[in-house]
Amino acid sequence: MTGLWQSKIPGGETGIEVRKSVCGICDNVCGMDVYVKDSKIVKIEGSKDNPYNAGTLCAKGAATRQYVYHEDRIKTPLKRVGPRGSGKFTAISWDEALDEVAEKLKQAKVQYGPESVVFFVGFSKWMRPFLQRLAHAFGSPNYCTESSTCFKAMDMAWKLLFGYGRTRPDIKNAQCLLVWSANPFHTNTPAVRGLLDAKEKGLKIIAVDPRYTPVAARADLHLQLKPGTDGALALAMAHVIINEGLYDRAFISDHTYGFEEFREYVQNFSPEKVATITAVPAGKIVAAARLYATTKPAAFMPSAAPVVHHTNGVQNYRAALALVALTGNYDVYGGNRVTPADIYLYTYAGFVTRKHDYCQVKTWEEMPPRLGQEKFPVWSRLVDEAQAMHLPWQIQTQKPYPLKTMLAFGINHRMWPDSDFMLDSLQKLDFFVDVDLFMTDSAKYADIILPASSSLERSELGCYPDNYVIYTQPVITPLYDSRPDTDIIFDLAKRLTLNDTLLASGYEASLDWILVPSGLTVEELKKHPAGMPVPHPIKLGERKYLEEGFPTPSGKVEFKSVLLEQYASSHGYKGLPVYEPPKYSLQATPDLAARYPYIFNTGSRLPMFIHSRTFRLSWTRSLRREPAADLNPLDAQQLGITQDDRIKLSTPQGFIVVQANLTATVQPGVVHMYHAYPQADVNTLIEADYLDPISGFPGFKSLLCAVEKVKDYYQEYSKY
Fold first, then answer.
1. N or C: which end of the chain has fewer CB within 10 A?
2. Residue 600 sits in a domain of what CATH number?
3. How many other β-carbons are positioned within 10 Å of the β-carbon of residue 381?
């Protein structure tokens, strides 16, 4: 018996039962086998039944037990009794908490209008459709999410060219793959299996990335560019493809708009000139352009955020995506396949839903202007959310109208550039509610804190690109007095008396309504606890544009954006994917670069972290216990810095002191720093308005900084 128990063998002798669920720590919702004894989780493994992760788990998922049972879990609803930030709260009942939240929301609606209430989702994402419906049914246009700094700007770049959002790289059928700053080895490990299989079968890989990543290590060509110069590199590749006649003439002639102007513009970006901008040798640029253009079919793998985390981000990615159009690799087998727009939570799984109709209870015209709409009008034209990066500005200025109340799920003020400015803004709200699993630094400033359940304590619909779907059941009862986020949303909806039948009907009835076009039902999904193949998945086909065209203003692929040109005089937007250097760079601000000579790239992923969510877990934190900046050994040698030395990273905004991590994965002249460490918050070094003017995304990945060795850590801080 002892051996069976130590090995966690399920069965009658040990009393261990295996229950199916998913990992909710990141977006991939990998399948899990959860070993439960006496209502407690004793072991977790990847589920071999799930075709997406096929029994594997990354470091983050493997630490799930530590996540679920961590001592920082919020155990009961809390009400603030001390000053904001003091951490002084008293426990209250759920009825008391929800009654007060509903009453405060109603008061704000009467006094300032429904638009004065902000509804925000950070992580996780599973409850988003339901909170968006609650916001719009309440009458507020100000539903916003962490996607204000995540994939939405990349999606905008796709839409500005093709009308449709992001596409799926058909790696299985591709002969060449252009990977543009994506690193699935750290962010999407289940996708790596297919990538490596394709590589073994002869797939040619071109990796564009400032770091030497696991993808770059397996690439046929690695274009290691300076951060923020992606647009110049893409335009140089286009220069080669066009001037050598390697472009798809039929596709360009029949389906594009603005090609002649684009052709003329790229003449300014010869490989030789761009080599001086990007640090990528001209020969490599030419070789990459030829390989991608002549190896058919070829797919393009984008990243969710790195390329758009620059002050020139949207235009950079437009230039890169123009390569897909130039080569005619759009919506073809082995290229980039277009999936239906009506999917569930950003993942296509072989079926369509009514999610958009569910979320958008009222049209935008029926509500006041969204947060950030005047500042970022193209965002508001292409994204069905408010732009959260403008949140602190509108709270502070109260223009064009005041924001007084916020209902937030998983908010982290360190997501914003100049995170201290965001934290100060949160304190200016009349009323702030935070729903979270843990007592975070942001939660400490809330008036009411509501404890959320983890993914293993609730039901969730998960979709997979393998035409697979799962609807989980709780594997354990919610710990302490926590509740699923959706219970909170639907309970609030009742208290707010919104006259909304679907919100009144509850979570599973709402899911059934959303799923109607798919033919799936919650009842049927419950019969398959490990998930199920989607019955009769949609066959995507190819070249759907031959019948449907492109949903752009011109009806064609737009090398020159008609929508951007509409804001040329008011906002200075350019129709072509013009390249401008980052706002702070050697090219744009040489005097500043003389004082801050290193390119500062923040937020580069580490395989054991998903933002700050796994900082508190002993397994994952042990892999990088202290905040550290990655430096090239050559730079470190010049600065007299050795491994683990304390170093001071400075920008005009301020400084932090961290450890040095010497690694040849970064290029000389560039410093990479992971984000969200409370004791060394790198985002405090970024100005609050250091944003891409089109998307509003922060320029996290191309600033300027100075680096110096700190001899005495405490003495350094005592100066200030």
1. C
2. 2.40.40.20
3. 15
